[in-house]
Structure formats: C-alpha cells, structure tokens
Design goal:
Largest sheet: none
Shape: flat
Distance between the termini: 76 Å
Strand content: under 5%
Radius of gyration: 25 Å
Structural class: mainly alpha
C-alpha cells in the first residue's frame, strides 16, 4: 500500500484540473451567456441626447455615489453651524469608516462563527448597511 493518493472515477477526491476547472469554466460561460442574452432581449434605454447648453436641475450623481453625496450635504452649513472642507466628507469620513470595518475582526475576536453568538459583529454589520442604505435613499429623494 502506498501513501500516494490515487485519482480516478471510483475515488471521492477529484483533482482541481481538469475536472473542477472545467465545471467552473462552464458555469462562468453560462453566466456570461445568460447576461448577454438578457442584455440583447431587454436593452436599457439610453434616453435623450445630452445638450451641453442646458444644465439639468438638480444635478444628481449615480445611485452608487448617493450616500457620499448626501454625506457631503450633511457636513455643510444647513446641518452644521460651520462649514468643513469638502475632502473631509468625500475622503476622510468614508476612509475612516472603511478602516474601522477592516480592523473590526481584530477587535472582535469572538471564537464562535454563529451569527447569534457575535453581537458586536452583527450590530455593526446591520448598522453599516442601514446607514449606507439610509444615506442613499435620502440622497435619492432629496430635491437638491
């Protein structure tokens, strides 16, 4: 009896290449083909042509920037009695928030993996999603 692992049709262990690589590659191809077919069947309307002489009012960023856009508005004079530099709301606050999320696993060293036994991670995760969704929604419905 040898210590070598033998691969074959009767063993439970399959090598990654070519078996698993073929399956994963096929799935990637199917997902791309499905996306392509859906895009051809239901094209997204482009809308009216842009006129450089007419500025739309109000100017709004794309949906994925609405949270930072609303954060910039919150750090301005209507909500604060003083004005902060724009780079604080656009760069510093999101960077500090991201660094806190990256360092969170080092702070919360709870050995359990179950969500119910990780109250700090669960609370901060839900709070993060709620703040981001709330700021995005607020930025979408605001008039300015």
């Amino acid at each position: 009896m040898s210590n070598k692992k033998e691969f074959g049709p009767n063993t439970l262990i399959r090598p990654f290449f070519p078996g698993e690589a073929y399956v994963q590659g096929s799935l990637v191809f199917l997902i791309i083909a499905f996306t392509f077919i859906v895009a051809l069947a239901h094209p997204w309307p482009i809308g009216e042509k842009a006129n450089p002489l007419v500025t739309p009012n109000p100017i709004k960023p794309q949906w994925y920037f609405l949270a930072i856009y609303q954060l910039l508005k919150l750090l301005g004079p209507p909500f604060l009695p003083f004005s902060l530099p724009e780079w604080i709301g656009a760069v510093a606050v999101p960077t500090i928030f991201l660094v806190v999320l990256i360092l969170l696993p080092f702070y919360d060293q709870n050995p359990y993996k179950a969500v119910r036994r990780r109250p700090i991670a669960l609370t901060l995760g839900i709070l993060t999603i709620a703040v981001f969704v709330g700021l995005t929604w607020w930025g979408a419905v605001s008039q300015t």
